[in-house]
Amino acid sequence: MKGLWKKALFRYMVIASAVLLLFSPLYMYFSHDVSVLKSKYPHLKIDSTRGVEVEVREGKPKHWVNLKEISSYGKWAIVLSEDWAFYDHQGVDFEQMKVALQEMVTADRFRGASTITQQMLKNVLLSNSLTLWRKVHEIILAQKVENVLSKDRILELYLNSIEFGPGIYGMKNAANHYFKKHPSGLSPREGAFLAMLLPSPKRYYVSFKRKKLTKFAQIRLKAILIKMRMGKVISPQIYESELRSKFSWER
Length: 251
Description:
Blueprint (H helix, E strand, L loop, with lengths): L1 H29 L10 E7 L3 E7 L14 H11 L11 H13 L9 H9 L7 H15 L4 H9 L3 E3 L2 E2 L1 H9 L8 H10 L3 H4 L1 H5 L4 H16 L5 H9 L7
Antiparallel strand pairs: 1-2, 3-4
Helix pairs in contact: 1-5, 2-8, 2-11, 4-5, 4-6, 8-11, 11-12
């Protein structure tokens, strides 16, 4: 009897696992009505202990800036740095995911392969928890949101919800904090600086805090400007000029 009970239990566990694997993707796909992001906006509430809480509701938040109001330099510095193929993929860049997995296996190095769409969903609708469940949820919803929202709307949501430093969220706040200007006036170098911050804004904030670019910041800044030149966002002449220039706060 004991052996039969164990077999029955094992059989039920297999069935339960199969059902879970079958219905989990469906649950993830229908878990959020992403169409609300067409007309509603993420309102951020920053709490020093609990982090950032997001509520999607009517009306633009105070820090909101329309995509058309952001300089092309500010926009493209971030797009080319974070997700070069943003306007070509359908929410998930499977080629980049493949490369990231290969690097993890062969070089024992992990790097993110999240697209702008995935990052927007993480910031606006999902949690920041580093779990496989959330990552799969993010991938499934990313493909759904691409069928509902335009690329420009996704990018606008992203640029208004990302962190650029301790307590600094959105392009409008970032442009004002670092350069005392509106995002429409961002230069190529300023756009590249904001893009440089994104992988780890609280860590890379040190350059602004010390009023001097770290060696890492110098290398990343140049790499992003090179991408902007390659993407024909800036000319070779502007590239050379921006390399020689300095921020108003640099020593």
